[in-house]
Each structure stands twice: as C-alpha cells, then as structure tokens.
Amino acid sequence: MDDGPWTGLGALGWFLATWVVMMAAMMFPSVAPTVALYSRMTRERSPLSPLLFAAGYLVTWGAVGALAFAIGLAGGSIAGDVLVWDRAGRWVAAATLLAAAAYELTPLKDVCLGKCRSPLGLLLGSWRGGRSGALRMGVRTGAWCVGCCWALMASLFALGLMSIAWMAFVAGLIAAEKILPWRRVATYGTAVILLTLGVLLLAVPDAIPGLTIPGRDVMPQMGRMGS
C-alpha cells in the first residue's frame, strides 16, 4: 500500500521539521539571554555570527529529534502492539515521568543547568572565533541544553507531544529552572511535579488534564513506514 509522503525520508523530514519548530518555540524564553549576549559580543565583527550560533543550537536539538524518531521507530517495530496505551504504553509513559523526576536531582543535571544559567561563563569558556566558531559554539551550547533538558523533553512525549498546553507547561518549567534565581527551589519543584504526574498516570490517568496518548499524532505515521 502506498502511504504517499509518509514513507521513509518523508516521515523523517516531517517529524524533524515539526520537532525543530517546536524546540525553537519552547526553548526561546530560556536560550534568548545567551543568544542576545552572544549577539552583543559579535555584532560589530560579524553580523551573521548570531544566526549561525542559533543554527548550531537548533542542529543539536535536530539531532536529538532524529534519535528520538529512530528509537520510536525501532521500538514500535520490535515490540509491536505491546507498547500500545492499553497494554504497556501507560506504564512506559509513567516510568518516563518518574525517570525524569529522578534525573532532576542528579549531579549531571546540576552541572548542565549551571552552564545554562551562566551565559557569560558558558560563552567565554567555549569561545571560538569566525563563522565556523559561531556554529560550533551554538552546537556546544545546544549540547549543554540537551544535557539539562532531555528528561523534561522526554516527559513531553509521555504527556502528549502535540499538545500545545503541555508544550507550554514544559517550556515554563525549563524557563523557570534556567532563569529564576531560586535554583534549588526550581529543580526540586520540577522533580515533585514530574513525580506527581508519574504517580497520577499510574493510578488515575483521568485526573491529568489534557493528557493525550503519547505519539498518537506521530507514531501512526512512523508505524506505517514498515508496511
């Protein structure tokens, strides 16, 4: 059966385009101070450098999106119907939220968040000149951001990847962790929220407002790729 554009590279391209746009919208509040600072530091020497910096940042998150796509596709091919919501799907989603809560309290999260909360230190510590340097610095900044936020992004898959409400909610958590002066309060508060959502998803999923079946809008397209 011909699935039109939703086969092979067509499905991957659609997913990555959606993912990058979503990342740009969600991460803008928290990464804007870093981009603005970099722009002030380079605009006289190279007006194009801030754009390359931002492009490098998005390239990093694009690579994460491609990895998520590959994992989802492989998981669906191997597990088949086992991961549907009424079987193991809800348990996997809840486990994702609980793992995200635990990651909030790890040393790696603390180190990555420290880098993201100090734009000047991050830029000076990885400074590279020229246009290629701008791109490399954007990639490096994106890598620290991935280390800081990957678990929160995974929680978005559990709550509903295409839900505008949950996208805004997770974006708010990310911004709070990176911008609010009360660093420990923000991270511990985020951990409690994720833990609570994970428990609710296991016990009473109907109590979570706006919950959508993870991958409902994306995974069917990915599943048809194997036919």
Describe this structure in words.
This protein has 227 residues and is mainly alpha-helical. It is 76% helix and 0% strand. The protein has helices spanning 9-42, 49-79, 85-103, 107-116, 119-125, 130-159, 164-179, 183-203, 219-223. Helix 1 packs parallel to helix 7 (164-179) and helix 7 runs antiparallel to helix 8. The longest helix is centred in the N-terminal third of the chain and has 34 residues, at 9-42. It is globular, with a radius of gyration of 19 Å. Mean pLDDT is 81; it is low at 1-6 and 217-227.
Give a short summary of the structure.
This protein is an all-alpha fold. The chain has helices at 9-42, 49-79, 85-103, 107-116, 119-125, 130-159, 164-179, 183-203, 219-223.
Descriptors:
mainly alpha; 227 residues; 76% helix; single chain; disordered C terminus; 0% strand
Indicate the overall shape.
Answer: globular
Q: Which structural class fits the helix and strand makeup?
A: mainly alpha
Mean pLDDT: 81
* SSE topology string: HHHHHHHHH
**Portion in beta strands:** under 5%
Question: How many helical elements?
Answer: 9
Main pleated-sheet profile: none
Terminal residue distance: 7 Å
Helical proportion? over 70%
Write the layout of secondary structure elements.
Layout: H1 9-42, H2 49-79, H3 85-103, H4 107-116, H5 119-125, H6 130-159, H7 164-179, H8 183-203, H9 219-223
